[in-house]
Design goal:
Order of helices and strands: HHHHHHHH
Membrane topology: Multi-pass membrane protein
InterPro entries: TLC-dom, TLCD5
Keywords: Membrane, Transmembrane, Transmembrane helix
Pfam families: TRAM_LAG1_CLN8
Structural class: mainly alpha
Largest sheet: none
Organism: Ailuropoda melanoleuca
Oligomer: single chain
Length: 245
């Protein structure tokens, strides 16, 4: 069983590495980060779809059955994601592209997935955490791509930012709090699984503070720009009115 899990993770890691190399060759005029973020975007879309299917259709429901034995589909998805996180953590460390908070997030994710695979249980709630963590990831990558291509400062960038902040606050913080509560009050999950859940939720709050600060600064900037435009429009109207007299 352990050998089969290791092979699945190695195959996943090899797959993500191969995809990264392919993106690098297809985008030779772009940076390495461009290709890495394409891999991240691909993983985000794939993991959202798979984890949503597990949580909402295949089951079991994470809010009522935390600590349940892992299903075969959960194991496959966790192995797929573990390979990705190992790839991305290695890339971030090698290129020194991320700060301590993101590295801590990736490390906790890797440890949490390994823990669920070794125990053979709690894949239900780990899969739910995966869904909540990844649901905002495509938007984050879209924001970066918009910046790189010079299309961020406009309506599209505002929509992406709004959806990112709304989803992060509603799903990762709001729904995440409910999931953590269900995890803590249930007698099934191991105590160290609960500790891991608390740690992941604490990391989410650290991200949330940074996101709220960004949202506040952007809102204030947008408000001042709107006030400035209104003032200029009033001046133009006033000057035009004076000229007609």
């Amino acid at each position: 069983m352990a050998l089969a899990l290791c092979l699945q993770v190695l195959c996943s890691l090899g797959g993500w590495l191969s995809l990264y190399v392919s993106f690098c060759r297809l985008n030779k005029h772009r940076s390495y980060e461009w290709s890495c973020r394409l891999v991240t975007f691909t993983h985000g879309i794939l993991s959202i779809g798979l984890s949503a299917y597990i949580g909402f259709i295949d089951g079991p429901w994470p809010f009522t059955h935390p600590g349940s034995p892992n299903t075969p589909l959960q194991v496959h998805v966790l192995c797929l994601t573990l390979g990705y996180f190992i790839f991305d953590l290695g890339w971030c460390v090698y290129f020194q592209s991320e700060g301590p908070l993101m590295l801590a997030h990736h490390t906790l994710s890797i440890l949490g997935i390994i823990m669920a695979l070794v125990l053979g249980e709690s894949g239900t709630e780990v899969n739910a955490v995966l869904f909540g963590s990844e649901i905002t990831n495509p938007l984050l990558q879209m924001r970066w791509f918009l910046r790189e291509t010079g299309h961020y400062h406009g309506f599209t960038g505002d929509v992406v930012d709004f959806l990112f902040v709304a989803l992060f606050t509603g799903v990762r913080i709001g729904v995440g709090a409910r999931l953590l509560f269900c995890e803590m009050v249930s007698p099934k999950p191991k105590w160290f699984v609960k500790v891991g859940g608390v740690a992941m939720y604490a990391v989410s709050w650290c991200f949330m503070f940074s996101i709220w600060r960004f949202a506040w600064r952007k809102s204030v900037k947008k408000y001042h720009a709107w006030r400035s435009r209104r003032s200029e429009e009033r001046q133009l109207k006033s000057n035009g009115h004076l000229k007609t007299h």
